[in-house]
Amino acid sequence: MFIVRENKNVNLTKQGGFTLLEALIAFFVLSVGLIGIVSLLTLSKSTQHQSLQRTRAIALANDLLERIRSNPGGIQIYGSRNKSSPLGGNSIASQPTNSCTKSAPCSTEEKALLDLWKWEQVLDGNEVTQPKNLGGNIKTSGLIYPSACVNFEPVAEKNTTGAVSITIEWRGLTKLSDGIKTPDQECKQMSSEEKPYRRAIQVTTYIAGDLVMPTNSGDS
Length: 220
Fold this sequence. Notes:
Strand order of the largest sheet: 1-2-3
Number of strands: 3
Order of helices and strands: HHHEEE
Number of helices: 3
Structural class: alpha+beta
Oligomer: single chain
Radius of gyration: 32 Å
Low-confidence stretches: 213-220
């Protein structure tokens, strides 16, 4: 009597899980995905920063226009800070001595000088600085290398009535086409290497400083 025995060969080389090649492929795919995510985050951060800078520039221009509207008598002083004498980079070395308060009033020209000094402090970011124990007097607000020009074009036979435009320029983070097309539109002359980084906005309004408003209305 013969007994038939089933011969079972056990394959000792058979393994479960990933091979080294599969692990390398998975690592490569994961790395590409992570690099894409980091690139998107960097681009988003850069775009957010540049959008914030543009918003800040527009707010600054409107703030200076409001100062001019409230003090039209000093419009010639404001308008003197044109292309030949732009604001920015601490161009006004020291604070004007006149405080222009109710207890110590000043002239319209003195008020304009004080306004320009205060406004330039904000433009340069001097209003907010890093504490000295963290580096000392590092500006944490304001635009990057800003410059600003005020252009006043009075109408005929008027001294404080006409069009006022404020141009603000600063340095962006990436290269783009220069928004300033002709040299006469520039606020500050730049080299050909710097021009692709230039960002600029311009806000224009009309000031009727010579308009005399009535002191009362209706019948007395």
